[in-house]
Every structure is written in structure tokens, then in C-alpha cells.
Specification:
The protein has 216 residues and is of the alpha/beta class. Helices cover 23% and strands 34% of the residues. The protein has helices at residues 14-18, 33-40, 56-62, 79-89, 105-114, 116-120, 212-215, and strands at residues 2-6, 26-30, 46-49, 67-70, 94-98, 124-128, 132-137, 140-144, 150-155, 159-166, 172-178, 187-188, 193-197, 203-208.
Amino acid sequence: MKCVVLANGEYGPLEEYRAVVCADDIIICADGGANYAYEMGLIPAYIVGDMDSIRPEVKEFYARQTVVKKYPRRKDFTDTQLALSLAEELGADEVLFLGTLGKRLDHTLSNLYSGIEMAIMGKQVAHFSPDCIVYLTAQRIIISGQKGDVVSVLPLSEKASGVSEKGFEFPLEKVVLEKKNPYTVSNILAQERGEISVEDGILAVFHFLKSESQLS
């Protein structure tokens, strides 16, 4: 089962986000993420958070067709963490985050770290933006794209052992990556598919969907 979590973060063209949501996905909005769901014409199954960011007309629109789980403003978890926890409760084996990259660096890092436990459990976790998709993996992942795509790999654990990259211009074979030495950036897909695997640890894999010249 796949859950799509909409955060109240930075978005690009909304039609590009709408295109990655399938009809049978369970949609969960983290507070103000509901504003973006509303603009995209999506009907979330749940809205969670302290409700300090959702617009009044959006709240009213969803009141009779969406389950709202309101939490106190003073809480020990972010709204995105609450949405992820709900996805786990529902039995999701795949979570796609929207609006979790960019805007504030601290929020971006918090959003990435929040998915670590789920990735360790072997579930699929990804953060989508039109420019970049970030995957979390503790096992193996296949990157499908175009030859020349930029792909960076960073360990989220202190160390990641047995890291291999196949199908790239700069292949790796069972190396140890350390968080303090993040050199595995800006690799290049040598073909349309690349394989990245790790034997112990957790990786964040950044697949840039535009060329380096477009990103600069």
C-alpha cells in the first residue's frame, strides 16, 4: 500500500506533483499540506497536525470528506512526523513525500531523517520534487532515468558499509562511506539504469531530474 504525504513546504509547478499521485494512493496531509492538495484537486483521506497553517476555506471544504486528526501546537513531533506515523499505522509499505525538500534546510533535514526507521524496515521511502527525487534505502535501489543524470549518495548513518554503485561513470564496489567524508556526490548515470546497494547503514540517494546546467 502506498501513502502520499503532502507537507507544508516548498512546491514547484503543482501539475508536476499531481502527476505522481495515483488514484489508489492514500493521501495524508500534514497540516498546511492540505492547501496544496486543495489546489491540486486531491481529496486526502486524513489531515494531521496542529492546524495552524491550513486555510479556513480549505478546512471547511474537507470537513465532511476527510478525517482530521488535530494535535496540540506544543508537541514532541513535527506535523510531517505525525503523517508518517499514521502511514505506518495504516500499513503502508511505500511512502512518497511531497513538499518536503527546499524552503528551510532544517525542515528538509528533519524530513529526511524522519524516514530512516521506515527505510531500515525495508519499506520504500522517497521525497519528490520536479528537480530531484531523494530515496532512502538500507538495502538496494534501482535508479531509472536518462544517461547523464546526476546522482549523489550520502550516508545518513555515521557509517554505511558495503556500498556499491553499478551503471555509473564512477562505480563503487563495497566501500565504506562515512558521514564526515561525504565525497560520493555528482556521479553520472552511464546508462538508463543504475543500481545502488548498501550492506549495513542507511543511504540518501539524490536523483537529479535535470542536467547540471539547468540546476546551476
